Amino acid sequence: MTKEESIQLQINYPEREEDVLKFWDTIFAFEQSLEIRKDSSEYIVYDGPPFATGLPHYGHFVSSMTKDIIPRYWTMQGKLVKRRFGWDTHGVPIEMEVEKDLNLKGPSQIRKYGITEFNEECRRKVLRYAQEWEHSIRRLGRWVDFRNNYKTMDKPFMETIWWLFHKLWKKGLFYKDFRVMPYSWRLSTPLSNFEAGLDYRLVKDLSIVLKFKLKNSNNTYLLVWTTTPWTIPANLAIAIRRDLRYVKVKLDNSLDQYIIEKTCLNMLKTSNFSIVETFLGQEIEGAHYEPIFDYYKGGANRVFQVIHGDHVSTDMGTGLVHLAPAYGQDDFIACKKSGIPFWGNHLVDEEGNLLPLNLNIKLAEPFLINEFIEKGCLYSKDKIEHSYPYCWRSGTPLIYRAIPSWFLKVDNLKDSLIENNKRILWVPEDVGRKRFGNWLENAQDWCVSRNRFWGTPIPLWECKTCQHIKCIQSISQLEALASRNIEDLHPHFVDLICFSCEKCLGTMYRIPEVLDCWFESGAMPYAQSHYPFENSHVFKYKFPADFISEGLDQTRAWFYTLLILSTAVLNEIPFRNVVVSGLVLDKNGNKMSKSRKNYPDPLLIIKEYGADALRAYFLNSSILNSEPLKFDEKGVKDMKRLIILPICNSLSFFIQYIKIDQCLILQNNHLSYLDKWILSKMQNLILEINIKMKRYELYKVVSILICFIDDLTNWYIRRNRRRFWREALNLADKLDKEAAYFTLYSVLKSLSKLIAPFFPFLSEILYQGLIDVYKEPQDKKSVHFCDYPTFNSILVEEKLETEIEIIRKAVNVVRILRERAKVKVKQPLGVLWIITKNEQFINCFCNHVSILEQELNIKQIIIQKEFQQDITNNIGESFDVKDSNLNVFWMTQEGIDYGLLTNLTPSLIEEGLVRETLSVLQKLRKNMKLEVSDRIMLKIGIESEFLMNTLKSNEKLLKDELLAVKILWDTKSIVVGQDIKIGCFFIRAIINKLD
Ligand SMILES: [Zn+2]
Questions:
Q1: Domain of 213: which CATH number?
Q2: How does pLDDT run across 207-242, given as a tens digit for each residue?
Q3: Counted domains in the chain
Q4: 123, 189, 236, 581: which one has the fewest Cβ atoms less than 10 Å from its Cβ?
Q5: Helix, strand, or coil here: 524?
Q6: From the CA of 510, how far away is ligand 1's center (Å)?
Q7: Same domain for 364 and 239?
Q8: Angle, nearest 10°, between helix axes 611-620 and 701-710?
Q9: Confidence class of residue 390 from pLDDT cuts 50, 70 and 90?
């Protein structure tokens, strides 16, 4: 790397990342990294398949990063880590897109259009953004095999799904039931309970109280509250609770009497009433009432009765609950218990229309209210704000609807699920123990059927004559029954196949439903390898996964279905370790929204700061500990400043000097104590990072790393600069210089490997920069082919580390004192007192007193157990001030008193001026982009005689430090150029480079 290049590195870091990508391509880096480990034992990662119907968002970048770090780390630990990308291709997300493209609305229009054409359109479009995905993921630096990907719509994948379904079928885990399910009328399909919980919204709905007249009474009414007026036509019963106290009240201005629960009297909205009677709920159980509508009149004996319902509460409403068993889960259960059946004549069709009015249920509500008023049964009407579930795909309100559906019995598996979950390492632990654990405790049977088109068909064929059901487990089995080849397993192919019943010789047709696509993603461990049709001998090495990672929203989705299927099929855990990431929000904590554009494009962020800066930003937040992250571009910028640039600068520093000196020797017995210190620090860093990685606490890595970078750049390199650039005049100097090079080289080399999993680009740039100047025999073509650094306790110098820490703390205190006294760091000061009784501290300060003097720019450091009054003796005779005029700033920290004398003597002032001049002229050299070894001619113009004399008397020092062969002194007005401020004076300077 030339000087130019190293400057480029800092300015155009993101472009250097692009160069690294090209470099990886030329050496087939990813493939090679696998090849190197081909005989090693495998570390298994599963990729949760995303949908390619939209572009990747920040959440995908977070999980892609995590799914890159862990495999890189374990590869460097010597494992073979294959990484196969997967695509989720079936189900509602793509069906919705295609419906929109084809201008279709709902299943009946799709059927009319043609399921074959519809499904083929889904197949064509489902991977429409796959290229953009590949580009983004590559730019983020993630290594993953796109070419050998798996897709849930592949024939082998689908065949495994069938085999899996059959396996569970044989175990008797599936059953069909009329069940009230969360239902999306926009999609005309039931959803599982976990899908129903994905989009709760705070909305305003109607809230009405209706009067139901008790039979055989002139004027007694049951007061019933509801927020879903559209379900009233389907009312079949009213529920009370036997143990609650109800009252009959009479309003002052009316003859009517109302029955209501005693604590719900506020629902009457008046205080002008009297209580006629109080009784327990059980006393009106069985009472008949007159229905408002007569759609179900004559259906069964027990309808339109007051029954007991466990779910009745008094938190809201009147203590009497209207029951429409076709459209409510609790309603269905309570009615079933009381022998009131729902016999399947829906009043709401599959697309959400209330049939008697032929209007969508929501649009029908105003008409229903009018009807209530006309019939005289509306007691009161209000609006209520409450949280209501919406369809996560179509954004329409969900309803509950009784549907014949296929279920997987989770109840039977519950104990095994809970036991298995205890064997999984969750990060953070709470998500697994509480969130996921509670979800498992309350797990309900899983509705696996969907009334849709583009998916894996449920492999059940039913006899039209005797209702016998046959479950198909493979393509060959179906081919034998159909006596022909089957090229595709999608519904529009296999639904054409029928065969005769083995029981009655009737004809068997496939049932219409397809499988929930979560069943497919949960089945990916088996289906991606086409198990057991292929790869059955190696499957046991690929299961369970050592690692998976996805967002918190997968707790009730992918994580759950993986565990259910592995427990049901193998009674085994599907993954050993899981990192759960939180949600990425916009700067203000709002959901990121494509339409509102409230966040910057991730690829533009990468272009501006580099992928590694973005990775550092994610890693440094708690998002990998499942907490939400408010995305702020400034945070990415900070990471570039705190990690990327200091490391680049350290590399350029090293390269600049080694190119001049050419004296790298990779063995050294002349290490200074600072060399030993930074080498020891590096060992601790290696230890710490390995511990965190083995506990999957990725979110703890960056803060440790930033501390180390501070040690390296702000202490080790800064304090040792002189060792690199001064000329070695004797053997001792030469050995010392070699020690410094050796140390910096080893530290940077270890660092490159250590950060490789996290910052794949930066580490490569660092590694290539180092091996370019000195190649060791064991060096590899890429840092990612190296072994991960291991802890070496021999290099640890605990005592030294403690001492330097004490010294650095002292330095910080004195910096604060200087700030308080408003004295610049460049201004030398006379005396610092350090007062402590602690022997360890005293020894430490005495050992390193010269560092303190240099670092703090102080002439004399006095270390005492007790402050001695007579200080003038200590500070020497040159200090021509009286005790009473001494200006001392004091501060106490950790039991140590620090006193800084800020009085300036003429010689201190002179030295300060010289130092300031030097620093200004060094900066000038730097701005001219001179090499550190370039010699110069310097011309200085000065007006002040005092400053001129001061500088002239330090001419040798100026020449040495600035590599000036000659200095020409002049008056300021003669020298052309800008004024430069030195203390309270102004100078001008011209530097000419000498050849
Ligand atoms: Zn049959």
A1: 3.90.740.10
A2: 999 999 999 888 899 999 999 999 999 999 999 999
A3: 4
A4: 123
A5: helix
A6: 13
A7: yes
A8: 110
A9: very high
